[in-house]
């Protein structure tokens, strides 16, 4: 897998050094774009890019440059035996193995991180597999002139429709290659210069076409892989639960607009964006416009998630009991806004004074140990009725009291939220919104709750208020 690291050169120029397991490096520079146009007020997103057939992470270099310079995270991946990935194509036995770099990257996302996946062409099917496996880690999936399957249908349906529609001479000067695998022979294709120029890069700058002729590798679409024919693979509960957006490349010579619209019609409710003048390689022909589209989709995703959280907090089926612990020198009083909001939504909310804090009657010199200081929380958790799973919330120093309670009573704690201040709001910002706290994902009644604790009770996750 290739890795991208960024070094600031000056205020308007960014240098990207792309290194891979083979030790090669390429230095790419772009100083033509006003990167501040792509900044978002609510902080950077993490975009993960997947290339199409025969291509690699390299084809995203313009978009990665723009997004990173604007403060976002951008990770462009090489699928197995593609781009700078060291494997040979005949060594990759299945579509899942081909997709492994993406699956591993999504699986490794930090708890609570919601990625924006962007797949081009065949890369849309890699996205679909990752969305089915890790729906909670994907905030949105963007299909750029891509194969976009629908839940309840086999994943290869869009590939089959494409192959049905194209003419016999579609691949022009491309070369067909028979791979001798350990299973059975498999066919691959190496795109020819004429096909690249006339059907993929027809509106892109000539230097991008030249780059492609130097870097494309043989690729296969795995259309005969069993995973492509499994109609039960993609489910509404997983794949169908992730926000999807389809980006139409309006000047795509490899796939007419009708086929792209057919793909969209298979998945009602999908957000649709159009990029005028974009060829199949929209990341090269219209990188600035593509960045605009990606950030618009990402912004809409955040609004959608916020709306969903507000619905969740009012849902009678997700009532929770929150126990709130203050930070150093504070008391239960600092949670008054959050307690009021949670109670108004029908949840239970208990804000505690630790020993010698807030309105607690003890004096500081009477509290000999941290355990004595934390006793109000320990007693409250111990007293929870059998089967009740609490949500503990600790601000600043209060996170340590949470840790002690979680160690003592793991079977009584469903989740723990450590709320830390964020500059420049200051240390007194002890009140994360009630909606933020309701974002805690609790197990359904009975899930993993066999009375044994099993090490799966409370987990201390740090969040910023």
Automatic annotation (TrEMBL):
Domain AB hydrolase-1: 47-292, 321-421
Family annotation (InterPro entries): AB_hydrolase_1, AB_hydrolase_fold, MES/HNL
Region (Disordered): 423-465
An example Gene Ontology molecular-function term: methyl jasmonate esterase activity
Biological processes annotated in GO: jasmonic acid metabolic process; salicylic acid metabolic process
SUPFAM superfamilies: alpha/beta-Hydrolases
Pfam family of the protein (one): Abhydrolase_1
Ranges of compositional bias, category Gly residues: 451-465
Protein name: AB hydrolase-1 domain-containing protein
Organism of this sequence: Oryza punctata
């Amino acid at each position: 897998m290739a890795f991208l690291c960024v070094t600031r050169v000056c205020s308007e120029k960014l240098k990207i050094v792309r290194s891979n397991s083979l030790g090669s490096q390429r230095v790419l520079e772009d100083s033509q774009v006003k990167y501040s146009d792509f900044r978002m007020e609510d902080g950077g997103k993490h975009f993960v890019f997947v290339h199409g057939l025969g291509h690699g992470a390299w084809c995203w270099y313009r978009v990665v440059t723009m997004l990173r310079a604007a403060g976002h995270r951008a990770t462009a991946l090489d699928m197995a035996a593609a781009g700078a990935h060291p494997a040979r194509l005949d060594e990759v036995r299945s579509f899942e193995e081909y997709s492994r770099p993406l699956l591993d990257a999504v699986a490794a996302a930090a708890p609570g991180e919601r990625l924006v996946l962007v797949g081009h062409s065949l890369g849309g099917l890699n996205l679909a597999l990752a969305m089915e496996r890790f729906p909670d880690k994907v905030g949105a999936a963007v299909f750029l002139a891509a194969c976009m399957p629908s839940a309840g249908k086999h994943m290869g349906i869009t590939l089959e429709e494409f192959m049905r529609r194209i003419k016999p001479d579609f691949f022009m000067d491309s070369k067909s290659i028979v791979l001798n695998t350990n299973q059975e022979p498999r066919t691959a294709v190496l795109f020819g210069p004429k096909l690249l120029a006339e059907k993929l890069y027809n509106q892109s700058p000539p230097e991008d076409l030249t780059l492609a002729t130097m870097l494309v590798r043989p690729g296969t679409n795995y259309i005969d892989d069993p995973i492509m024919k499994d109609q039960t693979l993609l489910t509404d509960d997983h794949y169908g639960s992730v926000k999807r957006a389809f980006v139409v490349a309006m000047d795509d010579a490899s796939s007419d607009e009708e086929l792209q619209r057919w793909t969209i019609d298979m998945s009602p409710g999908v957000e649709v964006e159009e990029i005028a003048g974009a060829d199949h390689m929209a990341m090269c022909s219209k990188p600035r416009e593509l960045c605009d589209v990606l950030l618009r989709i990402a912004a809409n995703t955040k609004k959608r998630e916020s709306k969903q959280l507000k619905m969740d907090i009012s849902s009678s089926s997700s009532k929770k009991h929150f126990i709130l612990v203050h930070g150093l020198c504070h008391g239960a009083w600092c949670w008054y806004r959050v307690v009021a909001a949670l109670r108004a939504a029908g949840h239970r909310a208990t804000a505690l004074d630790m020993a010698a804090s807030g309105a607690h009657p003890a004096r500081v010199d009477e509290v000999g140990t941290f355990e004595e200081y934390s006793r109000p929380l320990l007693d409250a958790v111990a007293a929870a009725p059998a089967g009740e799973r609490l949500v503990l919330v600790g601000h600043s120093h209060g996170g340590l009291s949470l840790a002690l309670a979680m160690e003592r009573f793991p079977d009584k704690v469903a989740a723990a939220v450590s709320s830390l201040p964020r500059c420049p709001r200051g240390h007194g910002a002890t009140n994360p919104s009630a909606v933020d706290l309701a974002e805690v994902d609790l197990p359904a009644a009975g899930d993993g709750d066999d009375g044994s604790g099993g090490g799966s009770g409370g987990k201390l996750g740090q969040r910023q208020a």
